[in-house]
Specification:
By secondary structure, this protein is an alpha/beta fold. The protein has one domain (about 10-335): Alpha/Beta hydrolase fold, catalytic domain (Rossmann fold), CATH 3.40.50. It has helices at about 30-40, 125-140, 160-170, 175-180, 195-205, 230-235, 240-250, 260, 290-300, 320-335, and strands at about 10, 20-25, 80-90, 95-100, 110-115, 140-145, 180-190, 215-220, 275-280, 305-310. Strands 1, 2, 3, 4, 5, 6, 7, 8, 9 and 10 form a ten-stranded mixed sheet that branches. Helix 3 packs across helix 5. This is BD-FAE-like domain-containing protein. It comes from Microterricola viridarii.
């Protein structure tokens, strides 16, 4: 596999910025959608890397109560908002939100939650992805909902560089102690574009899974995996998906775009990769063949992988209903209970 260091970054200390907010979920008397919408009100006006209200929505464009919107958060989850995890050379401040379970421990497993939105929109604290953060915390994980730089201002590899920086920040001794996590038990969860980033986080690193930006487990839903133009067209992606990928890569001519290979998690698969959970809906707009080929390649490389295909055309966290939540949580619990030691 190939590994690229994050460019133009510097770690930020563990001290809270003046904008950091901490609160505890007090009640869960309404649906997950309404509860998280209310909670996200604490976040209005804090947008260091900047989607406005029109672009901060999740990739779930339907108003229906589906997927993660069927989750109701229990009381007692502690949420710390807008924690700085890094800055960039241009002064961009990168932030994440932390959702902590009620149970205190110095050895808790952690999961990075990576929002979707075509690499061009979305936010860690929109109602749907706040619900993901709360759900992961309700399962006993310390969840870190990560913001990253977006298209059009920042094309590949800005987003994955940011996510890798976040993983290193979470694992650092001072931050592991601050939030009571086991730095050897860090996983990643993402949907759609965030699923691509979670998968790339899992495959493109090198070395032990408890070091640097590596993670010990990856769960992703509806991720575009092979971003080479020939593969995207062959798999049947529509023109809109093709345009989204082209804008993300930022190449003048996609067919000759070296970044397409570097941005594809499938490029870097080898036997050192962590276990994967891959979820997809049969008829959604990201072609199912992308997930099927990815799972087959992981399996061929000797990487543990679970492929879950569900009926319908819902996308990303739109398929994260109670049944899928149970499967993903079970996978993460198993994979992070005793992280596998990768082969050299």
């Amino acid at each position: 596999m190939n590994s690229r260091p994050a460019a133009n970054s510097k770690p930020v200390g563990v001290g809270r910025s003046r904008r950091t907010r901490v609160f505890t979920v007090l009640a869960a008397a309404c649906t997950g959608l309404l509860a998280t919408a209310l909670l996200s009100g604490f976040h209005v006006g804090v947008r260091e890397i900047g989607p406005d209200s029109a672009t901060a929505t999740s990739e779930l464009v339907t108003p229906e109560i589906i997927g993660i919107r069927t989750f109701t958060a229990p009381a007692g989850i502690r949420v710390t908002e807008d924690v700085a995890y890094g800055t960039r050379e241009d002064g961009t401040l990168l932030t994440l939100d932390v959702c902590e379970p009620q149970v205190s421990s110095s050895e808790r497993p952690a999961v990075l939650s990576i929002h979707g939105g075509s690499w061009a929109r979305g936010d860690k604290a929109n109602p749907d992805w706040r619900a993901v953060c709360l759900w992961l915390a309700s399962e006993g994980f310390v969840a870190y909902s990560v913001n990253y730089r977006l298209v059009p201002d920042h094309t590949f590899p800005a987003a994955i560089d940011d996510v890798e920086l976040a993983a290193r920040w979470v694992r650092s001794p001072e931050n592991a102690e601050r939030f009571g996590i086991d730095p050897a038990r860090i996983g990643a969860f993402g949907g759609s574009a965030g699923g691509n980033l979670a998968a790339l986080l899992g495959t493109r690193g090198t070395g032990p899974l408890d070091r640097g930006s590596r993670v010990a487990a990856v769960a992703e839903l509806s991720a575009p995996i092979d971003l080479r133009r020939g593969s995207v067209v062959r798999d049947g992606a529509n023109v809109l998906v093709q345009d989204i990928i082209g804008r993300y890569l930022g190449c003048a001519e996609w067919a000759l775009c070296a970044e397409a290979e570097d941005a594809s998690p499938s490029t870097f698969i080898d036997q050192s990769d962590p276990p994967f959970f891959v979820g997809h809906a049969e008829a959604e707009f990201i072609p199912l063949a992308q997930s099927q080929s990815f799972a087959a390649a992981l399996d061929a490389a000797g990487v543990a992988v679970e492929l879950a295909v569900v009926p319908g055309d819902d996308h990303s966290i739109g398929i994260l209903d109670a049944g899928m939540r149970e499967r993903v949580a079970g996978f993460l619990h198993d994979a992070l209970a005793n992280p596998a030691v990768p082969l050299a």
